[in-house]
Amino acid sequence: MRIFNSSTIFIFLGLLLGFGSALQSLETMGVQPVADESGWNEWRLSVDDRLQPYAMGHFLAAGSLPAPVSTHFYIRDLDDDGNPLRGDCNFVVDGPGLSARWWSLSVRNFESTKPQAVLSAGRAVLDSNKQLHATIALHPTPGNWLQPDGKGTFTLTYVISELEKSELLVLPHVKRGRC
Amino acid sequence: MGKLFWLLTVSMIAVVVHISYVLFAPAMLFQQKLYQATEGRPDNSFFILTPEKQTQLFPAATVKDVVGVCKYDLGAGQLILSATLPKTFWTMAIYTQSGKQVYALDDAQAGSNAFSIELSRAKTLFEQVISTGEADDAGQIENLGWRAETTERRGLAIVWIPLSDELLRKPVETIIKDSTCLPKQAG
Q: Among B173, B170, B172, which Cα is nearest to B88's?
C-alpha cells in the first residue's frame, strides 16, 4: 500500500514537472536574445533551429500561424538601457534602413483592441545616409512617428521579409527620451 | 537504489510529458481556435480577413496589410487556388491545420501576379511503396503553373500583401477578392 502511494506521488510529480516545464518553455524558449546584444529578441522560426518547436508551439497555442520561413520576427519590451517601453515616455529608434523586400516596425499593446501603430518600408523616411530615425511618443513629433496606445507598456515588433543575403542585419537601437 | 529508481522514473515521465505537450498540444489548440475563428466559412472558399482578425491569425501582418485566406479540405481531391494579386510584394504560404508550413511563394518567384497553384495531398509512405508500378507524378501534371503537396487533408493557404498605407487596403481588396480555391474538376 505504501509503495503504491509513493509511486502515485512520483508519477504525479513527473507529470507536473513535464507539464509545467512545457508551458514555461513555450512562453520563453522560442524567443531568444539576438547575438549582437542589441536588446532585440528573435522568434526562432527557422526549420533548422533546435528551438523552432517551442517558437512554433507558442504561436499555435495562441491561435496564430508562425510567419513564413523567409520572414524574421523580432520583438522587444525594453529599451537599450533595460527600461520598460511605456507610453508615458518618448523613445527614439535609430538604425540603418534595410534593403529587405519588406519590413515593418510596429508598436503593439497586446491587451488593447485598438489597431497598432506601424511604420513600414515604403512609408518610412530615411535620412541622406539611409538611416532610419523614428520617435515613439503619445503626441505628434516631426519625422517618422509611432503613437503608442495609452501610457501603459507596449512591445516593439520588427518584421523583416526577404533580406538581401549579402546584407549584414543591424537592428535599430531604442533609447528613452523625455518622460 | 530505490531513490535512484524513482528519480529516473520521475525524470523519464517529465521528459516524455514535456516533449509530447510541446509537439502535439499547440497544434491541437490551434485547430480548435482555427475552427472557432473560421466558423461559418465554408471549406474551399477564399475570403479576406478583417485587420483585427489578420493580426491575430497571422502576427507577421500589421493592421495596414491585406490577408486573404483559403480554408482548404482535400477530402474531395485536388484543389486549384487561383489568385490575382497587385503588383507589389506579396507572399503566399500554405499551412497544414497543425500549423506546419508546407509551401511558400512570393511575387518574385511567381513572376506573375495572376497564377494558380494545384494543391494535392502527399502520398503516405505506404502509398509510395505500393505505387511503384504506376506512372510517376510528372506524367500526371496537367496544370503548367505551380504545384504543391501537403501532408494533411485540411489547412490554410494564406496570401499576405503588406501595405504601407491603410488607404491602399480597399483597392487591393478589390483586386484580390475574385481569387478562388476550388476543387479540381474531374476529367
A: B172
- Are A56 and B98 in contact, with CB atoms under 8 Å apart? no
Nearest chain B residue (CA) to A20: B18
DSSP state of A19: H
Interface ipTM above 0.90 = no
Q: How many helices (H) and strands (E) does chain B have?
A: 5, 9
Closest CA to A111 of A149, A146, A64: A149
**Tens digit of pLDDT per residue, chain B (187 long)?**
678 888 899 999 999 999 999 999 999 999 888 888 788 888 999 999 999 889 889 999 998 999 999 999 998 889 999 999 999 999 999 999 888 899 998 998 888 888 889 999 887 777 777 766 555 555 555 555 688 899 899 999 999 999 988 899 999 999 999 899 998 875 4
| This prediction's pTM | 0.86
The x, y and z cell numbers of residue A29, run together, are 524558449
Whether residue A56 contacts residue B99, with contact meaning beta carbons closer than 8 Å, is answered with yes
A 103-142 → B contacts, CB under 8 A: 104, 106, 113, 115-116, 118, 120-123
List the single residue in B with minimal CA-CA distance to A11: B10
